Amino acid sequence: MDQTFRRFRQNRVNQTVRDSHAEAQLAAKDFILPFFVVEGTGIDHPLPSLTGVSHLSIDKLIEAARAALKAGVDKVLLFGVVEADEKAPLAPAATKDDALVSRAVAALKKALPALTVMTDICVCAYTDHGHCGVLKGQVIDNDASLPLLAAMAVSHARAGADWVAPSAMMDGQAAALREGLDKTGFSKTKVMGYSAKYASKLYGPFRDAAASAPSFGDRKTYQMDPRNGSEGLDEALADLDEGAHAVMVKPSSWYLDVVHAIRQRVPSVLMAAYHTSGETMMLRHGAAAGLFEWDDALLENLWSIKRAGADWIITYNAVEAAQILEARR
Predict the structure, then answer these.
(1) Is 64 exposed, middle or buried (0-12, 13-18, 19+ CB in 10 A)?
(2) Tens digits of pLDDT across the chain (329 residues)
(3) Nearest to residue 133, comparing CAs of 153, 148, 118, 155?
(4) DSSP string for 57-102
(5) Where are the extended beta strands (E) located within the chain?
(6) If residue 280 lies in a helix (H) or strand (E), which one and from where to where?
(7) Is residue 313 included in any domain, yes or no?
(8) How many distinct structural domains can be found in the chain?
(9) At what angle are helices 277-288 and 294-308 packed, to 10 degrees?
(10) Quick check: 112 and 159 in contact, CB under 8 A?
């Protein structure tokens, strides 16, 4: 037989060899763990729509973050969930100095100084209409929304946030945050843009968790059209031009081409990808139905995101993934 073909199977003969040839490597430091923080004390309320995730009061948030840090997950991303009577058209509960998330940031930084604390910057969970900016009639006013986002970021930075992450998908949001932070003396606070955030059906469990579904219409006038890939690259480049220190693609699994395109165009960029609530729950339901093993499917999904070019993966399964990886070492 003419043996002119290449022998790839030699790289797969056992787990040790497979590990030594693996291109995509995952570690606990690659993960960012999202949390939903609420008012009160002693609250750890599991969310039926998002398995393994709870609404946490600040005291319970500290406990959960400490456990994550012990597992090697040293980065968290905070979302605030407020009661309906705190919601208003201009989202004052999001921008005041003693805002819920600001108090959570301060508490985390005091209790766990080694933790990197990131905060989501969007007003959808704080407005009575559930949209991500200022309404003029039933239209989102892009430029009028930017000062609100900047004020929210400054509140979080004043409390000690290491990163602020604008997710409203308003044009110019990264520049607005950078200018607002610099003018108020927080030039060291970094900005991570939700640069390519698509109008996806994978956010359903999140919107339930954050109580942030729009009361009318949808978000297609500001979140990106799923049919567009090159536009995601353009959005990421624009955020970098506006002073963002990192960019993000959301969701991750269905948009790996966008992750890869950004990585190819800007090899040195610090890039995150958001493994969304819908992605998580598809895996959960598949595993529960006996279609595959949860541990293996989770790692395969996360490897694909890392392989496409993401540095960080925002995932509700950060601690589980870190523990699985540690057990397989």
Answers:
(1) middle
(2) 567 888 899 999 999 999 889 999 999 999 999 999 999 999 999 999 999 999 999 999 999 999 999 999 999 999 999 998 999 988 999 999 999 999 999 999 999 999 999 999 999 999 988 888 888 888 999 999 999 999 999 999 999 999 999 999 999 999 999 999 999 999 999 999 999 999 999 998 887 776 777 777 688 989 999 999 999 999 999 999 999 999 999 999 999 999 999 999 999 999 999 999 999 999 999 999 999 999 999 999 999 999 999 999 999 999 999 999 999 98
(3) 148
(4) -HHHHHHHHHHHHHTT--EEEEEE---GGG--TT-HHHHSTT-HHH
(5) 31-37, 44-46, 54-56, 75-80, 116-121, 134-136, 139-141, 163-166, 190-197, 246-250, 271-275, 312-315
(6) helix 277-288
(7) yes
(8) 1
(9) 150
(10) no
* Amino acid in the structure at residue 22: A
CATH code, domain carrying 175: 3.20.20.70
Domain that holds residue 105: 26-327
Backbone angles phi, psi at 35, to 5 degrees: -135, 150
State both tokens at 287: 């595993």
Question: Is residue 6, in this structure, part of any structural domain at all?
Answer: no
Does the residue 155 lie in any domain?
Answer: yes
Answer whether residue 158 is part of any domain. yes
3-state secondary structure of 190: strand
- pTM comes to 0.95
φ and ψ at residue 178, rounded to 5 degrees:
-60, -45
22 forms beta bridges with: none
Burial 67-105 (b: 16+ CB within 10 A, else e): ebbebbbbbbbbbbbbeeebbeebbebbbeeebbbbbbb
Cα dist from 27 to 6, 19, 194, 281, whole Å: 32, 13, 23, 22
Query: Tokens for 288?
Result: 């529960």
Residues involved in catalysis: 197, 250
